[in-house]
Specification:
The complex is a heterodimer of chains A (111) and B (113). Chain A is an all-beta fold and 111 residues long. In chain A, the strands form 2 sheets. In chain A, strands 2, 4, 5, 9, 10 and 11 form a 6-stranded mixed sheet that branches. Chain A has a 5-stranded antiparallel sheet with strand order 1-3-8-7-6, with no helix packed on it. Chain A is globular and about 40 Å long. In chain B, the strands form 2 sheets. In chain B, strands 2, 4, 5, 6, 9, 10 and 11 form a 7-stranded mixed sheet that branches. A 4-stranded antiparallel sheet of chain B has the order 1-3-8-7, with no helix packed on it. Classes of the chains: A mainly beta (111), B mainly beta (113). Chains A and B meet through strand 4, strand 5, strand 9 and strand 10 of A and strand 4, strand 5 and strand 10 of B.
Chain lengths: 111, 113
């Protein structure tokens, strides 16, 4: 699998439900970032979690990082239709500037 | 802050033509990245500049692609000659340093006929 591979590839939920997306990576990292991309737009940074952190919160977002399993999860609570977008994780390959983006999870929140 | 600015937002050209994409990073950022996004390959890093110097261009697909950063506030990505397989969305991103949050521009949607 690729560095920063997200799972699932697509997710469809009802408004108000929680959405969980997972990311796996291969190399050692300094940090892992999650980005959102609305259709036809650029990527927007959501949250950065460093390798020595296990959990981080930002509003309705909760990110966890397990460096022993080389995996991360993004939880969006109480989802809204406006959360409909693609979500990408990005990891710095071997702790360098070279961020590798995953293939993304396409989230659809139904009103 | 205006964010990262890219131009043009859309470009349609014919095979063989030269294409120049432009990027203005966020003021004060010393790292600049060019990415290409396609359905088949996802988001790929093409080249990375630090303090206006190209550090890694290993992602540049072919010699037809070149990038410059003549100063801290401007970068170009040039494709000459362009081919239909170059059709993609090209993003520029900047960050305070290479290891921090990257701020993306809106992208240039390129279609080569």
């Amino acid at each position: 699998s690729q560095q920063g591979e997200e799972d699932p590839q697509a997710l469809s939920i009802q408004e108000g439900e929680n959405a969980t997306m997972n990311c796996s990576y291969k190399t050692s990292i300094n940090n892992l970032q999650w980005y959102r991309q609305n259709s036809g737009r650029g990527l927007v940074h959501l949250i950065l979690i460093r390798s020595n952190e296990r959990e981080k919160h930002s509003g309705r977002l909760r990110v966890t990082l397990d460096t022993s399993k080389k995996s991360s999860s993004l939880l969006i609570t109480a989802s809204r239709a406006a959360d409909t977008a693609s979500y990408f994780c990005a990891t710095d390959e071997d702790g360098t500037y070279k961020y590798i983006f995953g293939t993304g999870t396409r989230l659809k929140v139904l009103a | 802050d205006a964010g990262v600015i890219q131009s043009p937002r859309h470009e349609v050209t014919e095979m063989g033509q030269e294409v120049t994409l432009r990027c203005k990073p966020i003021s004060g950022h010393n790292s600049l990245f060019w990415y290409r996004q396609t359905m088949m390959r996802g988001l790929e890093l093409l080249i990375y500049f630090n303090n206006n110097v190209p550090i890694d261009d290993s992602g540049m697909p072919e010699d037809r692609f070149s990038a410059k950063m003549p100063n801290a506030s401007f970068s170009t990505l040039k494709i000459q000659p362009s081919e239909p397989r170059d059709s993609a969305v090209y993003f520029c991103a900047s960050s305070l340093s290479g290891l921090e949050t990257q701020y993306f521009g809106p992208g240039t949607r390129l279609l080569v006929l």
